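Researcher: Go.
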Amino acid sequence: MNKTMIRSQIPFRLTIGVTGHRTMSDQPSLRKTIQRILDEIKDTHTHKGRTEFNWCVLTPLAEGADRLVAEEVLKRPEGATLKAVLPLTIADYLEDFRTAQSKEEFHQLLVKDHSPISLKKLPLHDEYPPEMIADARRDAYEQAGKFVVDHCDILIVLWDGKESRGKGSTAEIVHYAEKKKRPRYIISTDVSQTYSFIDGNNNVD
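Model: Structure:
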C-alpha cells in the first residue's frame, strides 16, 4: 500500500467550539443557520471522496447556545463526537440549571463523552469562603470559555452583539477569540438567519 493510499484513509476530524447566550428566541431558525454553517465548513475543509471526515464538538454544555450547537453537530451524517469541558464539578454546575428538564438534557448529552473534563476538582464551598463563591463561579465560566477557544479549530458564536455583561460573558469570550485569532462564525441571535465568518487573521467575510 503506497503512502498516498495510507494518508487518504486517515480520518480528518474538525473540532467545533461553541460559545453564546443561554436564553435565545427563535431556536428553530438558529438551528437552520447552524446547519448552513456546518455544511459550509464541511465543503470548505474536505476533498470529497479522498478522506473520511468527521466532527468533534467542544462545549461546556450550558443551557442555550452550547447545547444547540452540540445537538446539531451530533446529528451530522459524517459522524461526530462530543467533548465536554465543565467549568465546575457536576454538583455545582447543576445548581445553575433552572429546571429538572434542563438538568436531564445536560445528563443526556454528558453521557456521550466517556471522559469529560472538569476544570474544578473540588466543590466551590470546599475552596472558597461564602462571600467569594459568586466571583469564583464567574471565574470558572471564563476559564471554560477560554479553554474552548484555545482547543477548537473553529468557534461558533451565538451572540446579540452587545458588549460584556461581566466576566465569562459571551462578549468577553468573543474578544478572547479575536485576540487568539481563532476562526469563528458569529450568528446574530437577534436576526437568526444572519451570520459572518472571521478568519484567523480577523478578516470578516
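Model: Helices lie at 3-8, 27-45, 65-74, 90-94, 100-110, 124-127, 133-151, 170-179.
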